[in-house]
Amino acid sequence: MSRRRELKSEWKTYSKDMPQFWIAIFFILLAVAELYQSIKDIDLPLPVYLGLGTILAVASNYQQQFSLARDRQIIQQPTSTADPVLSSTQTPLLKATQSQDLE
Fold it and tell me: Is the distance from CB of 70 to CB of 78 less than 8 angstroms?
């Protein structure tokens, strides 16, 4: 019985807070809708879009500014590749091209 009473008291607490929650959500959604409608009607010229895009690109890559200088100093090591495995139909072609190269 005591657990049932605890659940009822918890439900009463939640039921008191729920209308406040839904009213807050309603006003937040109303504000977002009004803001969207006011922003939607703004028409900016192309140079403003280009300037804002440049600022956004610089701001998003700001942390990588110094790391690129270090990455450019990569030391290239010589690599070796294994000899290719040729099939029986490719072997005569290889011999023919090698004999033409020697001439």
Answer: no
